[in-house]
Amino acid sequence: MTRIIAVVLAVILGANALFQLAAPLAWYDAVPGVPSTGAFNPHFVRDIGAAYLVTAMGLAWFAWRPVQGWPALVAGAAFLTLHSAIHLFDASCSASPLADLIRDFPGVFLPTLAAAGIAIVHKPEEI
Question: Going by C-beta distance under 8 Å and a sequence separation of 6 or more, which residues neighbour residue 51?
Answer without folding.
Answer: 17, 79, 83
